[in-house]
Design a protein that fits this description.
Length: about 700
C-alpha cells in the first residue's frame, strides 16, 4: 500500500509541473534568454551612424562591425544595463558597406542578432581644392604646356587667348591631382594669357589663377625628332642598380608622356606610367637579384609623335656577409601596409658557448644571441603559430637545422582599452615585450607547455617584440597567438647588439644596413660618395629658379642647409644636376630626419612662407601613433641640417583649442590672452595627436 501512495505522489508532482508550464510557458524560459527587439539604424553623417535596439530584459550590449561579413574586427560596447540601447559608430569611411552584429548579455544569458549590413553616405566636402606648383614648363613655337597640382582629385579647366583675351578653352572631367594641359595650334612669337581652376567631386571650385607666356619665334624644336638621352642605368656598376631595385632615369628633348615595362622569364611583368615631362625617373622594386630584365620605354610627345626603345638591365647579386650567409634586404617590405611580424633569424653552431646560458632571466638583451655576427636572414611572418616542427634556418653550420634564434617586431593597433587574450608555447626560450616592458617570460631550457592569459592594453598603437631561441636538438616548438581583435603590422627594429638598432639607434631606416652599419640594403649611392654614416643619396639636384640644393634619400628630397653640410655629407659639387621644379617635386619632401650622433627622430612641420619647424617623436609609441609614419622613411642627415630647423615651442590637439608651451619635454598651458599679449605667431602652433600630447609632462600654467 505504501509503494502505491509514493508512486501516486510522484505522479501528482509531475502533473502539477506540466500544468504550471501550460499556464505560463514563459515563466521558466524568461530567466534563460534575452530577446533583441526593434533594431533600427540612423545615419548621422557620411562617417557615423547610430544603431538603436531594445531588449525585453535589462542587459549590456556590444556591437561588432567591420568591412567583411565574417571579419567583424571592430567593436563598441554599451556597458550600462538597460532595456533601451543607442550606440554611435563613428570615423567610418564614406560610401562604404559595413557589416554589424548586436550581442547582448546579463548575468544569466547572452543573445546575438543576425549579421546585418548598411552603407554609409557620401562624406560631404565643403572645402575647395587648393592649387599649388603652378608652372608653364614647356613653351615651343606652336604649343605650350601648363601644369598645376591640387590637394585632392579635381577636374581640369583652362581658358586661353591672345593678349588679354580668353577665347578658347580646354577641359577634362577626369578628377586628378596632377594637372597637365597641352595647348596646341598657337602662333610663334605671340603673347598669350591663360587662366585655370579645378573642381572637386562635390563641385567646390578652387581659386582662378592667371598666367602669361610668349611662344618661341624659332619653332625648330617643333620639327626635331623625339630623342632619349642620358639614360640610366648604363652598366651593372651604375648606382641606380641594387640587388632588388632599379631606378630608371632619362631625358627627352621635348615634353613627353608614356610608360615603361620591365619583363624577365618566369617573372610577372611590371609597368609604370610616366607623366608629361622632359626628365623622367621611375623606381622599380621587388626585383630578383642577379636577373636580366628587358626594359621597354614607350613615349608620346606633345605633338603626338611616338617613340619605342628597348634596353637590357640587370640587377646585382645579393650581398654575401662575412659569415658566408646571404643577408636578406628589407627594401622590398611594405611596412606600412603589410600584416604580421618582421622577423630576424640568427644561426649558431652546436658548440657555441653563448648557447650554454642556463637561465637567462635578465632578458634577451643579456644573452648575446640577437647579434649581427649570427644574423642569417630577415622576413615578414604573417603569424607566429609554427607548431613543434619549426626549423626555418639551415645554412650548413654544424648542428643545423637546430640552434637558432629569432627576434620578431611589430606594431599593435588596439581597437579599445580592455583585456586581450593570448596563448604561448615555446621550446626553449621566449619573451614577449610590449612598449619596452616584459609582459611574458618563458626563458630557460624547457619543454613546450601552453600558457594562456590576458594583456591589459589601452586603445591605440603599441610596440611588441617577441624573442625565441632553440638551444637543444630535441625539436623546436614556437607558437604565439594574439587576440584576433588586434591588428599586427611588421615594424623594422634592427638588431640588439649591432648598429642596425631599434628606435633608439636607427640610422637611415632601411638603408642603414644590418649589423656593422656599412652593409647596404638596396639603397643607391651617388658616385664618389663613400661616407656610410648618412642615408645614401641617389641624386643631387637643383632647379634653374633657385640655388637650393636637394639630395634624394629613400626616394625623398631633402634640403641641404649649407655648403658646410654639403661637404660634411662628402658630396661632390660636379654631381649636381639641373631638374625642373615639377620633376623635383615628384620626390616628396622628407619629413622624418635624425642626426647620426643622436637617437632622436624629428618630424618636420611646414608653416607659411616656406618655414619649417621640427618636433621630436620622443618614443616608438609616439612614432607609430601617426599612421603615415614609416620607419623606412627616416633619413640620417648632418647635424648642421638638423640644427637648421627651429624647435616647435607651441602644441595643441585637433579637438582641443588649448595651446601648450614646450620646455624640456614639459608642457605648460598658455591662455589665448597671454599668447596674444606676448606676440606669439599662431602659425607656429603645431597640431599633434593625443598620444604625442600625453607623452609630455604637464606643469604649471604660464601667466
Amino acid at each position: 500500500m505504501t509503494k502505491h501512495i509514493k508512486k501516486f505522489n510522484i505522479y501528482l508532482i509531475l502533473a502539477s509541473l506540466l500544468v504550471s508550464l501550460a499556464v505560463s510557458p514563459s515563466a521558466v524560459l524568461a530567466e534563460s534568454s534575452i530577446q533583441i527587439l526593434d533594431i533600427s539604424l540612423e545615419k548621422l553623417s557620411g562617417s557615423s551612424v547610430k544603431i538603436k535596439w531594445r531588449t525585453d530584459l535589462s542587459s549590456t550590449g556590444t556591437i561588432r562591425y567591420g568591412l567583411e561579413e565574417y571579419n567583424l574586427n571592430a567593436f563598441i560596447t554599451d556597458n550600462k544595463p538597460a532595456t533601451w540601447h543607442e550606440v554611435v559608430l563613428s570615423n567610418l569611411a564614406g560610401e562604404t558597406n559595413y557589416y554589424y552584429q548586436i550581442i547582448v548579455s546579463n548575468s544569466a544569458a547572452e543573445t546575438s542578432s543576425f549579421v546585418r549590413k548598411f552603407k554609409t553616405d557620401e562624406v560631404r566636402d565643403n572645402e575647395a581644392p587648393s592649387i599649388t606648383n603652378r608652372d608653364i614648363p614647356f613653351i615651343a613655337g606652336t604649343l605650350a604646356v601648363v601644369t598645376w597640382d591640387t590637394n585632392e582629385a579635381a577636374t581640369t579647366f583652362l581658358e586661353y587667348g591672345r593678349g588679354e583675351s580668353y577665347t578658347k578653352s580646354i577641359s577634362s572631367s577626369k578628377r586628378v591631382e596632377s594637372h597637365q594641359v597641352v595647348i596646341k595650334g598657337l602662333n610663334p612669337g605671340t603673347d598669350y594669357s591663360v587662366r585655370y581652376y579645378s573642381k572637386d567631386k562635390q563641385g567646390n571650385r578652387s581659386s582662378v589663377f592667371e598666367s602669361k607666356f610668349t611662344t618661341r619665334t624659332n619653332d625648330n624644336i617643333d620639327k626635331a625628332g623625339l630623342v632619349i638621352s642620358d639614360f640610366r642605368p648604363n652598366s651593372l656598376e651604375d648606382s641606380n642598380v641594387s640587388d632588388t631595385s632599379i631606378i630608371i632615369s632619362f631625358k627627352t628633348n621635348r615634353w613627353t608622356k608614356g610608360k615603361i615595362t620591365l619583363a624577365a622569364t618566369g617573372v610577372k611583368t611590371k609597368s609604370q606610367d610616366l607623366d608629361y615631362n622632359t626628365y623622367h625617373t621611375s623606381v622599380l622594386d621587388n626585383l630578383k637579384p642577379a636577373t636580366k630584365y628587358n626594359l621597354t620605354v614607350y613615349l608620346t610627345d606633345v605633338y603626338g609623335k611616338k617613340l619605342e626603345e628597348k634596353y637590357t638591365v640587370e640587377t646585382k647579386s645579393a650581398f654575401i656577409g662575412t659569415a658566408g650567409n646571404t643577408l636578406s634586404t628589407i627594401s622590398t617590405i611594405d611596412f606600412g601596409n603589410s600584416l604580421g611580424y618582421y622577423g630576424q633569424y640568427y644561426n649558431f653552431q652546436e658548440n657555441d658557448k653563448i648557447l650554454k646560458i642556463k637561465n637567462p632571466e635578465n632578458g634577451p638583451e643579456a644573452t648575446g644571441w640577437y647579434s649581427s655576427q649570427y644574423f642569417s636572414f630577415a622576413q615578414v611572418d604573417s603569424s607566429l603559430n609554427f607548431g613543434c616542427n619549426f626549423f626555418p634556418v639551415n645554412t650548413a653550420l654544424p648542428g643545423d637545422p637546430y640552434h637558432f634564434a629569432v627576434h620578431w617586431s611589430a606594431t599593435l593597433s588596439v581597437p579599445s582599452t580592455g583585456s586581450y587574450s593570448y596563448s604561448i608555447s615555446s621550446d626553449d626560450d621566449s619573451w614577449v615585450i610590449i612598449d619596452g616592458q616584459t609582459a611574458i617570460n618563458q626563458s630557460g631550457l624547457r619543454k613546450a607547455k601552453e600558457m594562456n592569459g590576458t594583456l591589459s592594453l589601452s586603445a591605440g598603437p603599441h610596440t611588441i617584440d617577441v624573442y625565441y631561441a632553440e638551444r637543444k636538438p630535441k625539436g623546436a616548438c614556437m607558437s604565439f597567438v594574439l587576440d584576433p581583435r588586434i591588428t599586427v603590422r611588421p615594424r623594422y627594429s634592427g638588431d640588439i647588439n649591432g648598429t642596425g638598432g631599434s628606435f633608439e639607434s636607427i640610422a637611415g631606416g632601411v638603408n642603414s644596413g644590418l649589423g656593422d652599419g656599412t652593409i647596404g640594403t638596396g639603397g643607391v649611392i651617388v658616385a664618389g660618395i663613400s661616407n656610410t654614416v648618412y642615408t645614401p643619396s641617389s641624386g643631387l639636384y637643383r632647379t634653374s629658379k633657385s640655388p637650393d640644393i636637394y639630395t634624394i634619400m629613400n626616394n625623398q628630397r631633402h634640403y641641404i642647409s649649407s655648403p658646410d653640410s654639403f661637404n660634411t655629407h662628402a658630396y661632390l659639387w660636379e654631381e649636381i644636376k639641373m631638374i625642373s621644379q615639377h620633376g623635383l617635386e615628384k620626390y616628396p619632401r622628407a619629413r622624418l630626419i635624425k642626426s647620426p650622433y643622436k637617437s632622436t627622430i624629428y618630424f618636420l612641420f611646414q608653416k607659411p612662407e616656406n618655414k619649417w619647424l621640427k618636433i621630436a617623436l620622443n618614443s616608438p609609441t609616439v612614432f607609430v601613433s601617426y599612421p603615415a609614419n614609416y620607419w623606412g622613411n627616416v633619413i640620417t642627415v648632418t647635424e648642421q641640417d638638423v640644427l637648421s630647423y627651429p624647435e616647435i615651442k607651441f602644441i595643441k590637439t585637433a579637438d582641443n583649442s588649448q595651446i601648450y608651451y614646450l620646455e624640456n619635454s614639459v608642457r605648460h598651458a598658455i591662455s589665448q590672452t597671454v599668447f596674444n599679449r606676448e606676440g606669439y605667431n599662431p602659425h607656429e602652433v603645431a597640431t599633434i595627436n593625443q598620444v604625442h600630447m600625453d607623452s609630455y609632462l604637464l606643469s604649471d600654467e604660464i601667466k
